[in-house]
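Module 6 notes. Inverse folding takes a fixed backbone as the condition and produces residue identities as the prediction. Think of it as a translation problem where the source language is geometry and the target language is the twenty amino acids. Below is one complete input and output pair. Work through it position by position during the lab.
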């Protein structure tokens, strides 16, 4: 496992990447970081997620 993977795998051993912008959720879940390594070479056990920005952009009910 690479250093980057150690920093981003959550307790279940899963890496969560945003399905739209490909940013990766930090272990604690509070941040979404662009991890070049994961974008170039998708690691094992990746789960598609949705970051806060994309949630707001694509699913916001505030926008008309
Ligand atoms: Zn996103």
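Target side of the pair, the amino acids:
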């Amino acid at each position: 496992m690479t250093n980057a993977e150690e920093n981003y795998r959550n307790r279940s051993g899963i890496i969560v990447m945003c399905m739209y912008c490909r940013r990766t959720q930090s272990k604690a879940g509070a941040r979404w970081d662009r991890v070049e390594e994961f974008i170039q070479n998708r690691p094992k056990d990746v789960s598609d997620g949705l970051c806060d920005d994309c949630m707001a952009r694509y699913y916001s009910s505030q926008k008309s």
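Reference fact for the lab report: The chain has a mean pLDDT of 91.
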